[in-house]
């Protein structure tokens, strides 16, 4: 279990030399001596395009290491983790929905979801079907993702992100192409899944927020 994620003086290396600028001075994340996300939190990270929100999630998930400062999982520097550590963490403790969605276009919606679910058998076939129904895409379950709209693909990716155990779920602009009804239903599903295990929810937004109840907004 991961109880706390902490960054210390974190800064993307591409921002080196910009430390005196207003955007970094006003950031609640970059260069902060002790920025912490705790298990059970509900956080929206708001930022303008190009501010580094996707980079932040990639750093935390171990996809990228081009940053200064440190990221700690319960006090352990993630730079010390090996491939086996990351495999375990991404399977059982950290779920990430990237902005690019990273779906396989030739596979169907159900096949894309099952690729992740098969790692832990976290959800039954009926539970996945129910999630597809709740987000209004049950009729697209056997449709190749390439033939779905961006909004439909986002809903597939949201369901896929929920088909694993997690202590924290990170969602990078997950509802940018969803209407309010689907946004609220997606937020409800995510909240229910996180509440069942006491997990934290961290989403990012450039203005179209995931409609989580009682969430805290942090400016990047």
The portion of residues assigned to helices is: 25-40%
Strand order of the largest sheet: 6-7-8-3-9
Label the structural class: alpha/beta
| C-alpha Rg (nearest Å) | 17 Å
- Which CATH class is shown? Alpha Beta
CATH-level-4 superfamily name: P-loop containing nucleotide triphosphate hydrolases
Distance between the termini: 26 Å
SSE topology string: EHEEHEEHEHHHEHEE
Q: What is the CATH architecture term?
A: 3-Layer(aba) Sandwich
Average pLDDT confidence is 97
CATH topology: Rossmann fold
| Helix count from the secondary structure assignment | 7
Major sheet details: 5 strands, parallel
Into how many domains do the coordinates divide?
1
What is the total tally of β strands? 9
Textual characterization of the structure:
The chain is of the alpha/beta class and 220 residues long. The chain has a single domain (4-219), classed as Rossmann fold. Helices cover 35% and strands 21% of the residues. The protein has helices at residues 22-26, 53-60, 83-92, 109-120, 125-134, 150-162, 180-197; strands at 4-12, 35-38, 42-46, 67-73, 76-77, 94-97, 168-172, 200-205, 216-219. The strands form 2 sheets. Strands 6-7-8-3-9 form a 5-stranded parallel β-sheet, sandwiched between helices. Strands 2-1-4-5 form a 4-stranded antiparallel β-sheet, with helices on one face. Strand 4 (67-73) and strand 5 (76-77) form a beta hairpin. The chain is globular. The protein starts with a strand and ends with a strand.
């Amino acid at each position: 279990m991961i109880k706390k994620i902490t960054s210390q003086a974190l800064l993307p290396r591409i921002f080196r030399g910009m430390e005196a600028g207003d955007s970094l001075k006003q950031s609640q994340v970059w260069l902060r001596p002790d920025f912490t996300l705790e298990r059970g939190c509900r956080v929206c990270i708001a930022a303008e395009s190009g501010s580094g929100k996707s980079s932040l999630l990639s750093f935390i998930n171990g996809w990228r290491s081009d940053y200064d400062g440190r990221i700690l999982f319960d006090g352990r520097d993630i730079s010390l983790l090996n491939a086996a550590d990351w495999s375990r963490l991404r399977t059982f403790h950290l779920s990430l929905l990237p902005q690019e969605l990273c779906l396989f276009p030739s596979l169907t919606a159900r096949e894309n979801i099952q690729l992740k679910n098969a790692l832990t058998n976290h959800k039954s076939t009926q539970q996945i079907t129910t999630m597809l129904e709740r987000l209004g895409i049950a009729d697209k379950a056997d449709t190749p993702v390439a033939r779905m709209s961006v909004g439909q693909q986002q809903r597939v990716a949201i369901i896929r992100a929920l088909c694993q155990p997690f202590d924290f779920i990170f969602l990078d602009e997950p509802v940018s192409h969803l209407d309010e009804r689907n946004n609220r239903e997606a937020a409800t599903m995510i909240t229910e899944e996180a509440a069942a295990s006491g997990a934290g929810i961290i989403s990012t937004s450039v203005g179209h927020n995931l409609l989580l109840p009682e969430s805290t907004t942090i400016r990047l």
